[in-house]
Amino acid sequence: MDFEDKDILNQRLEPSPGVLYVVGTPIGNLGDLSPRAKSLLQKVSVIACEDTRHSGHMLKHIGARATLLSFYQHNARHRLSQLLELLKGGKSLALISDAGLPGISDPGEELVAASRKLGYEVICIPGPCAAMTALVSSGLPTKRFCFEGFLPSKGSQRNSLLNTISQEKRTTILYEAPHR
Predict the structure, then answer these.
(1) What confidence score (pLDDT) does residue 10 get?
(2) Residue 25, class by beta-carbon neighbours within 10 Å (0-12 exposed, 13-18 middle, 19+ buried)?
(3) Labelling 56: which of 9, 47, 156, 160 has CA 20 to 30 A away?
(4) Lowest model confidence (mean pLDDT) among 43-52, 81-90, 120-129, 152-161
(5) pTM for the full model?
(6) Which residue blocks in the chain are alpha helix, DSSP H?
């Protein structure tokens, strides 16, 4: 069996019950959604996403009909146990973000850690990552870099971290919300 045959076989077996799929989604161009990601999102039982309205548009466009549950910073503690119960009940669960690869500077990190701790399989369906996309298109050095995620919102903590980062010799990647 060659590589292509194995790939087709794996797609037929996905999604599997009791598995968490961390799925990368496009950062602005729906054409960046991989065929595997599209197929999985069309077949999975439940999709946890940051904003059900935002993700709902993309999912409707690709013909996904799974139950959507919001999972974001402000409901993560409450929703985490519910998502783990779905895995326990044999549901297949996809985790997506509004754009890019979930689990980086978002509550997906907690869901992945909790799922692994309880023995559930976690499979990443690769896709665009805002940090790496920004890095490779920046023209800045890419051999060594550091990622700091989101800056603190409080002025003193924010300024302290910015002062520390300003001494960094490596290219530094930060996340920031558009409204800030």
Answers:
(1) 57
(2) buried
(3) 9
(4) 152-161
(5) 0.87
(6) 3-13, 35-43, 52-62, 76-88, 108-117, 130-138, 155-166
